[in-house]
Amino acid sequence: MNTLYDEDVVAWAVQQVHLLRSGLWSQLDIDNIAEEIEDVGKSEKRELRHRLAILVEHLIKWKWQPRRRGSSWMTTIRIQRIDIEKLLLKVPSLRATLDKELADAVWRDAVVMAVKQADCKGLPDTSPWTLQQVLTNDFFAR
Hey, where are the domains in the chain? Predict the structure, then answer.
């Protein structure tokens, strides 16, 4: 049986907002509301991981391809650091997710992207940098 949630999630959201603001608690779609709230957290975590991977990808290229260094790589590094900091300010609880597991996953993602776009050979299996180094503005993969 299809519900409004299954057919049009935006219309469903508008309906749920109306029900919430009207105090019509018994009519709320609690299971799907809970799912959507949970997805917000997952979405923010995905954005953090993606931005970190792009940042690390460019740090990899910066370190392993010094002859191809250019302003566009540096711009991407700076923009990702700024956007990551904005995200961490907006969602401070994400700082708690900056751990070894995330660092390993980000490194793997970044290596895949770097190898796909550039001739980066001899990359280590794990990151030679800490997340703190990666996020430090004056760290350029020394």
Answer: 41-135
